[in-house]
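Hello again, I could really use a second opinion on something today. For a while now I've been wondering how a particular protein folds. Please have a think about how the structure follows from the sequence. Here's the protein in full, and shout if anything looks odd to you:

***
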Amino acid sequence: MEFNWGGSIRELMLVEHPSDTHLSQSSTPGGKSPLARNDDNTLNTHAVLFDGTKAALAILGTGVALGAAVVKAAPHVKSGLVSLRSKLRRRAVETTDAEAPVPLKVIAEVESEQPDPVAFQNGFTGPGLG
């Protein structure tokens, strides 16, 4: 795919270079050069350029196919989720109805020791400590 833009030809390209390399910076701001360099910026190899039209069409086609599949499957997924939700609600109601309340028995009552409020106000904190 080529575009003639302001005296320059622009092409959509797919670039392949080794994974442990990066493309060189171009003298054009924001541009890259097809030279593949290592992390220490030494020249490793040239990048390989492929026609990007096929890649763009493949990506576009995959996106359209996935979108169509989602639209086609959405009603079935929604129906399944509604069915699951109603089953879970019925099961929750059945378990609460089936469980009879269990009476609680008090085994022993323990009276907590609390200081006498009058003695506490007068500065006494216990027998023999005040």
